[in-house]
């Protein structure tokens, strides 16, 4: 898409399942917004898994490597202009490669992808894309922080949540698997990842439901059950809160 006043380029990128990119660097900084799938990024001594609704900053000349999930990944890459970088520096320690995630960013990512895939002659799509990218930028600046070095047991905690989000679990079961007290798990998880265990579970369930709506013809009630929602009404409320539309409309617009 043509450049905007905040970004010199906005690109939709797709990555193959189980692919990998060896350590490399870029001569310009970039912002990445995950739309679908996921990947692990190794940067500044960390190894972080990024899922739909997560946004991260990669500094210029910073070595990093990536390994993609068995679902592959779809990302939106934003190349910030000098003024955009100045704005971010006023809010975040950019040299630490900060990142954040939220259901709001997940919804923005879906809408931004749709605008980037629109007819290039559609000037309204270009304007809409720039507005959504700026909305994502504001969300990122508001909530991202310099990531702390996550202890190994907290990395296992995050993996546990990703593995069991849709099947459901009790905090006590997770704590027992990690061999830590439930209160300690809950507090440490929020401090490390910027959201509670429940918030991450909700985001993962909604993201999986969105994938099933796009890729399958399963009834809504079946998707609700498969993704761990109590019932279809609960599923519809949670989905609409994240994406701004009910599941049935989301499916129609993407078929």
TrEMBL record:
Positions of the HTH araC/xylS-type domain: 155-253
Protein keywords: DNA-binding, Transcription, Transcription regulation
Transcription among keywords: yes
GO molecular function: DNA-binding transcription factor activity; sequence-specific DNA binding
Protein name: AraC family transcriptional regulator
Source species of the chain: Pseudoxanthomonas winnipegensis
């Amino acid at each position: 898409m043509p450049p905007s006043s905040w970004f010199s380029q906005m690109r939709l990128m797709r990555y193959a399942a189980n692919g990998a990119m060896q350590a490399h660097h870029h001569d310009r900084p970039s912002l990445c917004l995950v739309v679908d799938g996921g990947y692990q990024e190794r940067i500044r001594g960390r190894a972080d898994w990024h899922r739909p609704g997560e946004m991260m900053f990669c500094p210029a000349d910073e070595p990093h490597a990536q390994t993609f999930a068995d679902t592959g990944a779809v990302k939106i890459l934003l190349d910030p202009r000098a003024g955009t970088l100045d704005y971010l520096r006023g809010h975040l320690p950019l040299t630490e490669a900060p990142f954040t995630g939220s259901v709001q960013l997940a919804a923005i990512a879906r809408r931004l992808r749709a605008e980037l895939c629109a007819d290039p002659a559609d000037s309204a799509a270009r304007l809409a894309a720039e507005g959504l990218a700026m909305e994502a930028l504001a969300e990122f600046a508001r909530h991202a922080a310099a990531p702390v070095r996550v202890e190994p047991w907290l990395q296992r905690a995050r993996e546990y949540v990703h593995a069991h989000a849709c099947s459901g679990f009790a905090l006590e079961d997770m704590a027992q698997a990690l061999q830590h007290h439930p209160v300690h798990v809950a507090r440490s998880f929020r401090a490390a990842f910027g959201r509670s265990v429940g918030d991450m579970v909700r985001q993962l369930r909604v993201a999986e439901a969105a994938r099933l709506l796009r890729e399958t013809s399963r009834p809504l009630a079946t998707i609700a059950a498969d993704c761990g929602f109590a019932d279809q009404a609960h599923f519809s409320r949670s989905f609409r809160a994240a994406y701004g539309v009910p599941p049935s409309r989301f499916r129609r617009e993407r078929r």
